[in-house]
Design goal:
It is a single chain. By secondary structure, the chain is an alpha+beta fold. The protein has one domain: Up-down Bundle (Outer membrane efflux proteins (OEP)), CATH 1.20.1600. Helix content is 62%, strand content 14%. It is built from eight helices and eight strands; from the N terminus they run H-E-H-H-E-E-E-E-H-H-E-H-E-E-H-H. The strands form three sheets. It has a four-stranded antiparallel sheet, with no helix packed on it. Strands 1-6 form a two-stranded parallel ribbon. Helix 4 packs antiparallel against helix 5. The radius of gyration is 41 Å and the shape is elongated.
């Protein structure tokens, strides 16, 4: 029986581990197919902006509880221990103690005293508490609307960058195709040159163009990577994650252009309306300063006094313990505040009027955005149709020029010009598609339907 040396086993193990590592690495490096819906859904679940808006909603519940606590009883425990090295002497009329006329200096109190007790305060009437509770509930509503607006902003950013990635990739595809075609022409010219049928300058010119295309290709690869990284950032996705975009995501589906939507139903405007409610409550909270407040107070205390520290000392040590309690009502009636409350109310009123102007301007800007996106959509459709015809024509011209060049009926300059025209037409068509997609996003946004992109 042949025995395999240990170092051979080690080699086999290392080889096996290496193959396993390479295999697992290929799995990790596998690209993730990412539709627009996938990208938006991922962003809404992972982007920090969306997460923080949900945390604000959660925090608003705690704000409501904080305001509500002011309407509930406030109970506290107190305790103290005091040592008086020198007792204060009080001047007392001596006749009160049968000592005749004159003044008697007497030390009142003990060297040591300690107290412990419970205190309760219950607001019976405080207008600011009722107003604050309503304001806190409206704050929750504000954060809910703000979260919806944040989601729409996340969707818009992701969609815009998603289409920008596509355009950069399409441009790279065009350059790659141009590089392949130019390489074929270069091989043909080189063959002709080797056989004495072409000039060296023609070969040099086609090589220069090939180098230029290769440089452009490297630049576009870098642009694609940068744009992909930007998209992943707006998605909240790890930058190292490889992705690919399905071509089917960019098939055109013309939008239905109806009447101008009601701008007051847009999230931007609704947020301002909610803010208006908050400012109204803020004004009422200031006006609550005109109202009286009434509170119930109660306390129970236990006090120990003596010449020594009273803790754990019996009466035999001249330490005496006793209890006392009190119950009362505290009424506060504002009479004159130096016109401070009035000034605060007027400031709150100015804030409301400023917000009213913001609402008018926002409504106008939303209507403007819709009309502009409609115009851009119309222009983009015309441009796409024109560029599609131009692309078809540029391809036909290049095919004819190639045929003529190979038959000696056209110059190399004509061939290079034809290729440049085709590349330009392809890039123009791709740019027109991007303009349409970006305008489409703005139109969907103006209609308040960005959430439909994930339906």
């Amino acid at each position: 029986m042949k025995i395999i040396p240990n170092f051979s086993i080690a080699k086999m193990s290392v080889a096996g581990l290496l193959m396993a590592f390479l295999f697992s690495g290929s799995i990790v490096a596998q690209k993730r197919s990412l539709t627009l819906k996938d990208a938006i859904t991922y962003a809404l679940e992972n982007k920090s902006d969306a997460k923080k808006s949900r945390l604000q909603i959660e925090n608003s519940q705690y704000q409501i509880e904080e305001v509500r606590s002011r309407a509930l009883p406030q109970i506290s425990a107190t305790g103290s221990l005091m040592y008086n090295p020198i007792l204060q002497l009080n001047a007392i009329d001596a006749s009160a103690f049968g000592g005749g006329s004159g003044v008697l200096l007497a030390a009142l109190g003990q060297k040591w005293s300690s107290t412990a007790g419970l205190n309760l305060t219950q607001n019976i009437f405080d207008q600011s508490i009722f107003t604050g509770l309503k304001a806190a509930k409206t704050t929750r509503e504000f954060y809910q609307v703000n979260a919806q607006l944040t989601d729409e902003q996340v969707i818009e950013r992701v969609a815009n960058n998603y289409y920008n990635v596509y355009v950069q990739r399409q441009k790279l595809t065009v350059v790659d195709s141009n590089y392949v075609n130019t390489s074929k022409v270069k091989n043909i010219i080189k063959g002709q040159y080797d056989n004495g049928l072409a000039k060296k300058i023609d070969l040099d010119r086609i090589m220069v163009k090939l180098y230029n295309i290769d440089t452009q290709r490297q630049q576009l690869k870098n642009a694609v990577q940068l744009q992909e990284n930007t998209l992943k950032f707006y998605m909240g996705m790890p930058i190292a994650t490889p992705i690919e975009l399905p071509v089917t995501e960019f098939e055109l589906s013309p939008q239905i252009l109806g009447e101008t939507p009601d701008a007051t139903q847009r999230t931007d405007y609704i947020l301002l309306k909610t803010q208006e409610k908050l400012l109204e409550y803020q004004k009422k909270a200031v006006q609550a300063g005109y109202y009286p407040t009434l509170a119930l107070t109660a306390g129970y205390n236990y006090i120990g006094q003596g010449p020594e520290m009273p803790w754990f000392k019996p009466t035999a040590d001249k330490v005496y313990w006793s209890d006392y309690s009190s119950i009362g009502l505290n009424l506060h009636i504002p009479i004159f505040t130096g016109f401070g409350t009035r000034a605060k109310v007027r400031q709150a009123d100015v804030d409301l009027r400023k917000l009213e102007e913001d609402m008018k301007d926002t409504k106008l800007s939303l209507e403007l955005a819709y009309e502009n996106s409609r115009t851009q959509i119309d222009n983009s459709i015309v441009t796409i149709n024109n560029q599609k015809q131009n692309l078809k024509l540029a391809q036909e011209v290049l095919d004819d020029t190639k045929n003529n060049y190979y038959n000696g009926l056209a110059s190399l300059t004509d061939l290079l010009d034809g290729e440049n025209s085709l590349v330009e037409a392809q890039n123009n068509y791709t740019s027109a598609l991007l303009d349409y997609r970006l305008a489409e996003i703005q139109l969907i946004k103006a209609k308040g339907e960005l959430k439909t992109l994930i339906n």
